[in-house]
User: Fold this.
Amino acid sequence: MNSEIVVAKVPEFVERDTIVEAIFELRFKPRQDDVGDLLPGLLYPALKAAYPELVRLPLAELPKQVRKSQPNLSYTPIHQMKGDGQIVSIGDQVVTVSVQKPYPGWGRFKSNINQVLTAVRDSGVAEEVGRVSMRYANIVAAGQDAKDLSPYKVQFKLSSIETTGIGTHLRSEANINGCTAVMQIATGANSQLPDGKVAHGVLIDVDILMSAGVQNFWTDTDAFLNTLHDTEKQIFFGLLEESTIDFLGPRWSIDE
Assistant:
């Protein structure tokens, strides 16, 4: 059963950017073994201009037989390609594209994702798409302090116990727009930013996952990406009080 998102109007963007990290993930069934070791070399010629730094991660040192014996490791990156504020992470059955603050906007981020997906598709290693997801981590400093939940549409009570102190962490899942939405809210959150500063406030983390119907992903990529992004955006702004949206400086159209 699908839940309904209640939000009057979603801005195109806000002037006070709250996004500390955005991640797109593609999970796939490989056509051959050892894709995690082969794929960086296949992708690098097409992506080296945007991601010039190729890094071998510690998990790559594990014997391949050990990685295969633990299914969860199939979705853990073993190599990364790094660019200016953006990273492509590669595992045996996974590729992720991530950007950190400052968020470049959906148009630019989607272009980055499509560039990587084109290279993955053209490599021929991804036989079948198993799951796609889009995750945005926001740290919002809109209340009196980092434990103030009044700027958000959150109701959480344990009998008469105060539940709005530092360390409050709420996680929930719902079916929305044909997706599984994993939502987390935590007070007293901190995030180290690329410029050395620390973002401090309330964490609003929304992860949108799709596994049903994704066999058509390669032929309708743009629609899938837009559904993931639009669902995340509707949930995020639906969790904010109208006064909080106003505080963030909403812009209702790109031309505004």
Notes: The CA atoms of residues 172 and 254 lie 32 Å apart. DSSP finds five helices and eleven strands in the chain. Residues 14-248 form one domain.
